[in-house]
């Protein structure tokens, strides 16, 4: 049966041929383990642009570390071969795949091949999860004076978190003085946080989040090629449990009348905990994760307060925020939004400025 392919079908077919696609687009590139590397979309030699060509669910996925742009095969074609023109990219992809006039003779699905791909993807995801948890296990609890502690508690550009108000210290926060940074293949000091989710009726460790720091902990490594904040493992729907509230219960104890605050960033979640210590507080790590949160059932969670930021009106984050909140509410959770006063960018900005006003800086 002949029919027009979907974007998903074309991306999947391109991912299957990721090796050949990379060699066609970038003949001067090089293969390094499971990645194909070039400097930029013009195909010049280098390693800023890295495309995954190994097996598993990431095959065909890429990221330009200098520009901070991620994407899939079709977007790669658009930027590398078609000057950003999606219509040209679509035709280029169909020609590359051997489709005539945009019409595809789709083969009947092979159930055995589908099962094999699903099993391979599941195994790759599980191995990634285990490696991520191992990274967190290797790290040590943060302690006064270490770079992670100084980063979180210090004055600007530190984050001004007062751990005297957050005792016992959040167990999800750890520090590794020599945490591996894949994009630069170096080891650097990092704040390492555990990512969890509620899966099959219980808490499951899903991955880790790393914030790479300057040696003295005065700030993040904002100039780091490849980014100073990296995820590892299965982080979709996961979150970092940072504060369990002040009622003596654990983070996941049922609280049908309680409040769970979920912020985007780690620093924001800790700031909310300082302002509202009776609430539990967690970091979703990104705006796009709010709607996917793997929380316990609505009946035991209580109210979910999304503690958002005052993003620029025309920013991608601002556009993403409302549908993510709606998606979480559509799953049966009692959701409301709380943002800091408009003169503050986010909740961490609020506590730092209030401390400064009180003369604590």
Describe this structure in words.
The protein has 361 residues and is of the alpha+beta class. The protein has two domains: 104 residues, Zinc finger, CHC2-typedomain (DNA Primase, Chain A); 234 residues, no CATH class. Helices cover 32% and strands 24% of the residues. The protein is built from ten helices and 17 strands. A five-stranded antiparallel β-sheet has the order 2-3-4-5-6, with helices on one face. The chain has a five-stranded antiparallel β-sheet with strand order 8-9-10-11-12, with helices on both faces. α3 crosses α4 and α7 crosses α10. The chain is globular and about 65 Å long. The model has no long low-confidence stretch (mean pLDDT 88).
Please render the helix and strand layout as text:
Layout (H helix, E strand, L loop, with lengths): L1 E2 L3 H10 L1 H8 L4 E3 L2 E4 L10 E4 L9 E3 L4 E3 L1 H9 L4 H12 L6 E2 L5 H28 L1 E2 L5 H7 L19 E9 L4 E14 L2 E11 L16 E5 L6 E4 L15 E5 L2 H10 L4 E4 L14 H4 L1 E5 L8 H15 L3 E5 L8 H11 L4
Parallel strand pairs: 14-15, 14-16, 16-17
Antiparallel strand pairs: 1-7, 2-3, 3-4, 4-5, 5-6, 8-9, 9-10, 10-11, 11-12, 13-15
Helix pairs in contact: 3-4, 7-10
Q: How many individual domains? A: 2
Strand content: 15-25%
For the biggest sheet, the summary is: 5 strands, antiparallel
Number of helices: 10
Radius of gyration: 22 Å
Measured as a percent range, the helix fraction is: 25-40%
Span between termini: 70 Å
* Overall strand count: 17
| Strand arrangement, major sheet | 2-3-4-5-6
Which class best fits the helix and strand makeup?
Answer: alpha+beta
